[in-house]
Design brief:
mainly alpha; 2 helices
């Protein structure tokens, strides 16, 4: 599966529900120690398609 790397921070608009936002690659997200396990499973399922 190819992921388009042409999305830039300026292209993403978030609401005010969080304290902090930053962009991560899929690999960076999967390596996070504090990620939500169910979300990590969803990401893995998605990239396997």
């Amino acid at each position: 599966m190819k992921i388009d790397n042409k999305i830039f921070e300026k292209d993403i608009i978030f609401g005010d529900e969080g304290l902090e936002y930053y962009l991560l690659t899929v690999d960076e997200y999967l390596q996070l120690k504090n990620s939500i396990p169910r979300q990590k499973e969803k990401v893995l399922d998605y990239i396997k398609q």
